[in-house]
TrEMBL record:
Alphabetic keyword roster: DNA-binding, Transcription, Transcription regulation
PROSITE patterns reported for this sequence: HTH_ARAC_FAMILY_2 (PS01124)
Keyword Transmembrane belongs to the record: no
Span of the signal peptide: none
Entry protein name: HTH araC/xylS-type domain-containing protein
Domain HTH araC/xylS-type: 186-284
Coiled coil: none
Amino acid sequence: MMHEMSSMATIKPSIRAAHYYSYSGRVKERNRFGYCCAFHLIDKGMGTIHMNGRSYPLRKGTLLFIPPGVNHSFNISESQPISAYDMYCDFYSKKQTLIHLYFDPPRDYDEDLMSVVEDKKVLNSLMGVIQLSGYPEMIQTFIQIIRLNRVAIHFKDEIVNSLLYSWILQLANLKLSDNIPDYRIQKIIDLMEQFPGGHPPYQHWLELCQLKKSQFYSLFKQMTGLSPNEYLVRIKMHRAYAMIHETDQSITSVAESLGYSSIHYFSKQFSDYFGLPPSELRKK
């Protein structure tokens, strides 16, 4: 896993073609190969895709990744045909072509169009499907990349490729890491960030997540490496540091705004965390 993660950071992705596409069971949807890497984000409809001897279900929010040269076949529901945001890209070296598929090798295969692949393990680690419904930011960024790729703006390639690189690394974390973001836990983290001085009862967090206490604690620690209380303290300490450093608020006022009833306890916690008391930071 460490090899895949470190190698993933060396990719230099660029888009070959990107569009919104409606699948309806055409012949060329049932036997196809890609010259480059393909991402398909299902927007609506239902069906399956068959590749490498396996079938994967497809529905709204499903993200599918197919490495170059892999035979695959879309099987579409007649009552609910699929529409998807499709992106075809080179991971290592940009090819100056829009051609991204071939259908009848070797008759229509052109080796010069095949994407350069420096590390197959990186691509294989992403292959398959992942459900992104719980990660709306990932979905919106993917769609934004496709939309930006259509328009004529200054520095378009640099903007699009940088966003795509960042997005693929986030996807790699979802696929390869045990530290997988959970939208239920993220909901609580967002509340902590917005209201660090509040003291919502633990039960309120559980109700928002619809999780049992043991599940909530386990998922929170898996995602952040800290307990909920430890994470909240970290947020408070960094907020306190910024307020002391960037405003003229008194230290007592800062402590009170962050929910501390005792200035002495606040100062001790601050000193333990940063290695200096808040009064020393204010002097500096």
